[in-house]
Input
Amino acid sequence: MFSYRKHSSVAWLLFGASLAFACGDDATSSDDVLDDSSDDDTDAGTDDTTVTDDSSDDETDEATSDDTSKPSSAAGACYMPEEHVCDCELNEGACTESGGIWTEMCTSCAQSDGTDDESETDEQATNDDAGTATNVDAGAPQGDDHAASDDATDPDDTDSADDDPLTDDGSDAGPSSATDGGAEPAPEPEPEPEPEFQPIRDLGSTLLPQVNDLRGLTFAHDGKIYATGHVGASTDVDRTLAVLRFNADGTPDESFGTGGLVTHNLVQRVVEDETVLNDGDEQSFGIVELQSGELLVTANVRDAAGLGGDIALVKLDAAGALVPAFGTGGVLRVDLGWMPEDDASWPQEDSGPRDQAWDLQLDTTGDVEKIVLFAHGPAPAGALQDAEDPTTQRTDNDRYVVRLLASDGSIDPSFNQGAAFNLNSGGTFSDGGRRGRVLEDGSILSAGYTNFGAGLGNHVLVIRLLPSGLPDPSFGFGIGLPGVVRTNPFIDDGGVAECYSVGLQSTGRYVTTGYGRATGAGQSSRLGWVSTDSVDLVSVGFGPRGVDQNYGSEATFVVQSEEFALGDTEDRGRDLVVLPDDRVVHVGKFGVAPAIFVSLPDGQMDLDSGVDGRFEYPALTERTSHFFKVALSADGQTIVATTSNHADGVLFAMLKVGSEG
Output
C-alpha cells in the first residue's frame, strides 16, 4: 500500500479549527522539532520549531439517548461562540435564542452509536485590532460579531435524513406508499460516471549549472518562460541576481542575455582584513511580465549595514537590462513595518530588521496595472511586546501583503488606505508569509504558517483580502480574526502543518501544500497515514468556514516515503498549481529526490500520472535540492518546475497535459 493513498478513515471531525473545541476525546502528542535545514538561509526569518500538544482535553458534554432535547448527529448541535464549546443540551430553537450557532460540526453530540466522535477542543482565542485598517493584531479585543461569524455553519450542509427515500424494511416511505400497496420501490439513481482526466506526460528535465537557485517562475505572454533566482551556492561568494528566459519548449533562449541568462549584482560583497562586513547576499522568489513586456522581479538583498535584509523591486526591459527611470537606476526598496530611519534603534545587537518577499503576482483587475507583493518582516517599529512596558519592541515577524502600482512601485492608494496590510496572529509568534494568489475579482490569498508555541506548534494560516485590501469577513475560522483561516488537522496525532502555497478549485474548495508531520514521533494516525519518520508533504482542503471532510482523508492529503526504503524519508511540498480540471500539481521532494506530485480534485493521488502519481527526478549530489516553484501556462497544458539552491545547479522540468500531438 502506498503511503499517500487514502486509508480507511476514523470518526474524526474538525470544526474549521486547528484545535478541537472542548467536546472531544483526549488528545495526546509529543514535542516535535521540524527540521528545515535544506532551506539554505531563506527561512531564517521564521520560527520552524514546532512543538505539538501533549495535553488532553476533559470531556465536558456527554450525549445520552434518553434526552430528547439533545440533537442527533444528523440534526446538528449548538455551538456557543462566547464559550467556544458545543452545548449538546439545546435544540435548534433554544440554541438560537441563547445566541448560539446551529451546526452539524459538534460531533461529540452524536447519538448514532452511543459514543462520542472525535471532536473539538478549545481554540486559543486571538483577535483583530479594529482600531486601524492597516494592521490586524490578534491581541486586540474581539467583537461579538467576529466570534459568531468565525464558526458559522456551512450553508451547503444538508440533513442526511432526507437522503434515503427507503425505510429499513425496503418499503416506500413517501406519501404514495399508503395507497400504492405493493408498488415497487423507487429505483436507485444511476451513479455518476468517474471523470476522465487527460494524461500528464513528462517531457524531461535539464540541469542548469550556470545558476544555483531558481525560485521565481512565470510564463510570458508569448509562451516563453522566465525564471529568477541567484548565482552563488553560498554567501562565501558575492551572490548575484539571476534571470533566465526559456523558449516554449524549455530550451534556453539564446537571444536573451548570454545563453538565456542575465545577472545583476545589486549588493556588493565587502571584506576588510579578512572580516566580512557585508556578504552581498541576494535571492529572488518572484517575477512577473508586464503588458509592456518589461519585467518586475523581487529580490531579497543584504542591507547596507550588512546586518539585516531589504526587499528590492527590480524593473528590467525585455532584453533584461535595468530600466533606469524606475526607482534608483532600476531598483526600488520596498519598506514594510520598519523604515530605514528606524534601523539604528533595532534592539538586537549584531543584527538588523530583515524583510523577505516570497512571491510577486500580477493584478490585472481594473484599468491600472498593479502587482501584489507577499512577504514577512519585523513587527512595525513601536509595536510592543507588552503594552505596559513601553521599552520592549517586538522583534517577531508579521505577515505582510501590499499592492503596488506597476508603473513606479508606489503603494496603490486604493489598497488598505494606502498602506501595507500586516497580520500579527497573536503575542510574539512569528508569522511566516509564503506564496500568494490574486483571484479573478481582485481578491487576494496569502499562504503561510505560524508556530503557536508549546503544545500547539505550526499551523496553516491562510488570509483572504478583499480587493480593497481589507480582510474578507466571509472567510475565516479557527482564530478570532476576520479573513484568516488557522488549522492543523494533525494535532490530535501529535502532528504539525505548514503552508507554502494555496490554490482555489472551481468548486470553491481551497487546497494547500506545504510540509509538516502527519504524526508525532512514534505515534499512530487516526487519519490513516503511517507514522512520520521525517517531514511529510501535507495538504489541507477547506471551505471559507471550515475544513472539507470530502477532501482526502478527513480534509488531509499526505505524501510519505516511509514505506519505500529510499535512505531518507524527507518529503516536502513547496508550491502548487490547480489545473483546469481541478487536479492539483504539488512540487517538492520525495525521499532523496526532487519530485512532482499529481492529486485528483478530491485529494486522492492520481495513480495514472507518472509512477503512482509522482514524477521523480535525479537527486543532486548532496540530496538537499527540491522543486520549489511551479508555473502553469495560460492554456493549462504546460507545467514547469525549478529547484532551490544547490552547488550543482538548478533542475528545470517540464510536463505536458494531454496526449501527444
About this structure: The longest helix spans residues 144-150.
